[in-house]
């Protein structure tokens, strides 16, 4: 009898050891969108190492996969080859593309506990607009943003403007920009009043004009767009006029990547860019600057932007559970607050702003809360089925209008016709 008991105990111990060793081998591959090493990769590496310390049975393997676009292409290519990442930070706007590719799993199907449901409800509703569809949560907000206006207080003072007051609406922004635009004796512009970039993410900056003008560019199901609505055309006309008619901004296409540099070099007095540039501006602007919500037209408003955690369908159940655990770890109030302070992205959940560290940070650097306060007026970033092609149709239309190749109304009519054609199969 004792021999049988010993054998059973040995078998049980053997099975436990096997189970533990199997768990110890749970490795999750984590695609993160950054092209080069630097502070961000060091932060991600550290956070991954901290997670492993708390979860010794899980190994996180970060893969720095390039731009958001490159990371998406790599993830989908790997998915088709049968070797997808376990989890990835991809744009919130990639949600429909990833669903259509049958590449991702909703978080409700990975973990269905009460704790997990409470976690999914802990994020700002504005960020969840691009993270949920059909009653399911496909993405978890991580590095999210809104567009804000930055201004150089010194240049405002020089132009006779109140250095502590940003333009509240389009009319004021144009008036300020006219006062802030400087020319030399030959008539060449040496300082522009305002700069709204139109390369990289033209559609996103455009939503910074269409949203305050009281119109959304698509429906919540991602099956229809409204590019040719009068309010959309009116917003594009205003953008075009800033450069071509009023000459307070360079005409044509303005580079996304060099806009902050132009601001640091005092070539521009006001710029529109992501709040994700806040830490960059804080570290590099050698002058006093302000940050404000985008100017209103009919109302306030900005699109949200940035990246979500997604979990891939072809990963094993153990990997999916580990990836959801990792996403939960990375978005705790304390870590969301720290990530916001380190990068300038908006801490993605209200309780992150109540942490002692964040409260102290905002006290010393009040502009950090501007993007958060703008969330109450924010809408979902342009996201549809076949999003890449639909967005390209709009981007092409915007750039055609900005370069003078087409009138705004014609540009938007053509963009809408192309989007309707692409989305026909999803109706």
From TrEMBL:
UniProt keywords, alphabetically: Signal
Pfam families recorded: SBP_bac_8
Keyword Signal: yes
Domain of life: Bacteria
GO cellular component: periplasmic space
InterPro entries: Bact_solute-bd_prot1, SBP
Signal peptide residue numbers: 1-24
Record's subcellular location: Periplasm
Keyword field contains Signal: yes
Similarity annotation: Belongs to the bacterial solute-binding protein 1 family.
Protein name, as recorded: sn-glycerol-3-phosphate-binding periplasmic protein UgpB
Source organism of the structure: Usitatibacter rugosus
Lineage, highest ranks first: Bacteria, Pseudomonadati, Pseudomonadota, Betaproteobacteria, Nitrosomonadales
């Amino acid at each position: 009898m004792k021999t049988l008991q010993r054998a059973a105990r040995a078998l049980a111990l053997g099975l436990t050891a096997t189970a533990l060793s199997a768990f110890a081998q749970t490795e999750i591959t984590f695609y993160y969108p950054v092209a080069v090493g630097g502070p961000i990769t060091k932060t991600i590496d550290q956070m991954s190492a901290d997670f492993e310390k708390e979860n010794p049975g899980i190994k996180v393997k970060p893969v720095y996969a390039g731009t958001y676009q490159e990371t998406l292409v790599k993830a989908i290519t790997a998915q088709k080859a049968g070797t997808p990442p376990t989890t990835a930070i991809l744009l919130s706007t990639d949600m429909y593309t990833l669903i259509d590719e049958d590449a991702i799993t909703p978080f409700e199907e990975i973990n269905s506990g009460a704790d997990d449901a409470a976690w999914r409800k802990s994020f700002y509703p504005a960020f969840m607009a691009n993270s949920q569809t059909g009653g399911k949560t496909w993405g978890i907000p991580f590095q999210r943003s809104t567009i804000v206006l930055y201004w150089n207080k010194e240049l405002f003072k020089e132009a006779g403007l109140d250095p502590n007051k940003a333009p509240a609406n389009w009319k004021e922004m144009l008036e300020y920009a006219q006062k802030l635009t400087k020319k030399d004796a030959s008539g060449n512009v040496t300082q522009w009043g305002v700069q709204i970039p139109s390369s990289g993410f033209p559609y996103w900056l455009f939503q910074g004009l269409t949203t305050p003008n009281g119109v959304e560019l698509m429906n919540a199901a991602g099956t229809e767009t409204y590019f040719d609505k009068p309010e959309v055309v009116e917003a594009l006309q205003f953008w075009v006029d800033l450069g071509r008619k009023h000459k307070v901004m360079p005409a044509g296409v303005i580079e996304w990547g060099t806009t902050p540099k132009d601001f640091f070099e005092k070539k521009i007095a006001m710029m529109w860019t992501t709040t994700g540039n806040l830490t960059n501006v804080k570290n590099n602007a050698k002058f006093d600057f302000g940050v404000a919500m985008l100017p209103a037209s009919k109302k306030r408003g900005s699109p949200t932007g940035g990246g979500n955690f997604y979990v891939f369908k072809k990963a094993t159940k153990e990997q999916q559970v580990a990836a959801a655990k990792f996403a939960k770890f990375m978005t705790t109030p304390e870590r969301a607050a720290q990530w916001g302070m380190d990068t300038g992205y908006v801490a993605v959940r209200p309780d992150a702003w109540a942490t002692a560290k964040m409260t102290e940070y905002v006290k010393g650097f009040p502009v950090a809360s501007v993007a958060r306060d703008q969330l109450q007026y924010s809408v979902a970033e342009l996201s549809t089925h076949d999003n890449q092609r639909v967005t390209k149709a709009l981007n092409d239309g915007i750039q055609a209008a900005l370069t003078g190749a087409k009138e705004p109304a014609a540009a938007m009519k053509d963009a809408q016709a192309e989007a309707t054609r692409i989305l026909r199969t999803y109706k």
